[in-house]
Amino acid sequence: MIIRKIQIDNYLCYYDTNSFVLSEGLNIILGENGEGKTKFFEAVDWLFNGENEDLELLVSAKKLSETEIGESFRVRVSMTVEQYGDIKIITRSFVAKKEKENQCSTSSFMIEGIEENSLGERSQVDGTTLLDRVFPFQIRKYSMFKGEADLNIFESDNALVNLINLFSEAKHYDKYSEKGAFLREKAEKAVEDSAKLDRKNANLYKKLEGEISLLEKEKAKFEVHLNSTDDEIRKIEGNLQLAESHVKNADALETLNKRIKEIEEKISFLNGRIDENYTTSLFDENWILVNFEPYHKEFAEKVSEHSKKRRELQSEFDKEKGIKLGEKKAKADLLNNAVPLPTGVPSKAHMEEMLNDQICKVCNREAKKGSDAYEFMMERLKTYLESQVANETDDEEYEQLFKLDYTNRLENLSISHEDNLKNLRSIRTNIKELFEFNNDRKKEIEELNEQLEKEKSERERILGNSSVAEEKLIDVLKNYNAWQDDLKNRNREQLRYTSEYEKLEAQLKIKKEEKDKIDTDSANSFLIKTRNILRDIETIFLDTKEKKFDEFIEKLQSKSNHFFKKINIDAFTGTIVFTRRNKISRTIVEVELQEDGRVFYKPNQSLLTSMHISILFAISELATETKEENFPMIFDAPTSSFGENKTAQFLNLIFETENQKILLIKDFLNNDKTTKALSIKNEFENVRRDKAFWVKLERPFDPNNLKTINTQVITL
Amino acid sequence: MNNLFEKWKTKIPKYSEVHKDLFASLSQKFGAEGEKKINFGKHFSTNYELYTYAFFLGLYNDEYSPIPDNEKKTDFSHHIQHWGSKSSAIRKDFTNLQENMFIALIAKTDINLIDLEKGELDEDQAIKLILKTMESYTNGGLILIKEKLEENPNYFLQPTSFLNLILEENVA
């Protein structure tokens, strides 16, 4: 079946008559949010499944506002289809009559059918019947999908089974297996009745039946256990897998945090090594003396000049006074009349040192104890020491030229600071070295800071990717461990239940064989033979039905994966797996995404959508094979999680599939930020399709006034 | 034993009240060390540090500026001999600095040492002259600092500013 045309009249934003003349393959309808896309979908849905209620809500406000009170018009959605070369038209409509301003009544709700034969003769038929004939209800159910979430029609246990039953040959065996069971039961009863004729047998039989029924009950109990354990295991596995990505993150986070801490510690250590208290160092390290040397020189010269002058004056004074002249003269002679050094030079400490070492450190010659040189130094020290005591008495005895002596201390200060000069000279080097050291550390810190930034942004990335915040990651870890324990326990239970279950089955088998033996021994052999044949027949029907069912699942799986691989070019390469599970009294089919044989529990939306669409396409293809007919599929915004690029790829892929598709999407539209004008992007030219439309509100319109709303259908 | 150094150390040099603000803003009186100190714009832990600094700055730049007679003088009641904390574990003793200051003062002060030793010049008078030299160079240094601040109020926010002034010499 192919939809040739859809016509919408006065239905909500579709004012007057709007036609979508569709093509056989891929039809793309573009539209911005709120401009008529979804209303198209809903109009078709109303045509397929609409009911005769709240009809006034479907009336075009613009049409109503333009209609005179008392006048009426028809609201209509109509579909022209082609099936096996014949044209059929199905129309759902009602009449809206304007009663008051903004109000209308509705009447004449109807669904009409028109069939056109090959000769072009048209005849009126019942619309509902015609619709069900061209587009069976069960198939319609799997043809229209609104949004991504809607694609997941397989969440419910029955959906897939129903679908498979609809299309697979398995359903043909339903009636046979039912009949087979009925006949087998009859035969069993006949055998039983025959065997029970013997009283002794009857008691034994009763006992066995009681035992069998008890075992069956027990077995059923374990079946329930097994099923629920199975469910739990799957749930825990899902949780674990969800947690796993977080656990990985938590691990990575821990490593990162450790690294970040290390870098921060390094930085802090380096910061500690940087001494930038330069002002304090001016004092503590005496840096302030960096330029002091000239002043020291000036001081030393001043002191020595003074000292010399002082001695000269003293010498003059002494000469004039004639006191101790001989002695002084002798000394003067010894020095070739040069001015003698002050008695305190070399200093007392230096003299003592030289005497102790027996070396004259002035002329750098040995001065062994007892030698002249040694005696000279000893004499000089004595003179100095005497000069320190003698003064007071001298003062009284003699008139003094110098009443006070500051020179000595000043000279000592000068001498002691001579040694410091080399320290002063090294200050500049020290400062330079410290600056270099600090700069090196700063460079290291800068590098570390860069590294730190990198690590931190990595941490951001991890925390950003993870839907749980940092502290919650720790909780996830905790739960993760608990779930792992749970899983272990459940697996153990499952093992235990399975073995119990198998034991019970074995016991049941024994009991049933015992019962059969009584039958064989005592019942009518013809009845037994008949029963055995009927048992076999039932088994054959059941097995065949299951085989057909499995075959269909297998086909569905391989077709689904074929589409899935195509949709997910260069992306996740998991596999869609259909699993048949036999629950008590019914069969369910579950569909899962697996990666390397492991269930992939939490795929993202885009992946889910790909999977669902793949399955739908597969179903559609299989339907075509079994029914030898195509059915259209209508999707409203199925790929909102895709992104434009992937949508384009996806559309190009869909283009290659066989049956008719109508896709409503909001991609490929450009909204000019300044003029607000909408346009179709050039990229759309590269999208392969058979037909494209653009549904767009007529400008200008008032978003608050429905009367101004009219969707134009532009065929691209 | 007569010792000018010992005597000088017992004195408290003065500064012109004109520079009171400098002491308030640059030297630290109320706790806070390290980074916090710098954040407050206080580079000197004590008033005498700033005084010492200003002295050397004035000296190196030959800024001999006696405090004019009409300017009121003040001090911070701290004898030179107590400058430099000898009890602190992190700071070092100032003895060497004191000696060097004294050396510079003797070099720069016009004292007739012969007269002094002869007893013709009073020791107190000599000390007075020395202190005047000290106060004059310090005053010169403070003026230089003030000029720098007037040029750029943020000049001393750099940790190296004070060091640089000393290294540069002749900043004037």
TrEMBL record, chain A:
It comes from the Bacteria. Keywords: Coiled coil. Residues 5-267 form the Rad50/SbcC-type AAA domain. Residues 205-316, 431-521 form a coiled coil. InterPro entries: P-loop_NTPase, Rad50/SbcC_AAA. This is AAA family ATPase. It comes from Zhouia spongiae.
Automatic annotation (TrEMBL), chain B:
It comes from the Bacteria. This is Glycoside hydrolase family 15. It comes from Zhouia spongiae.
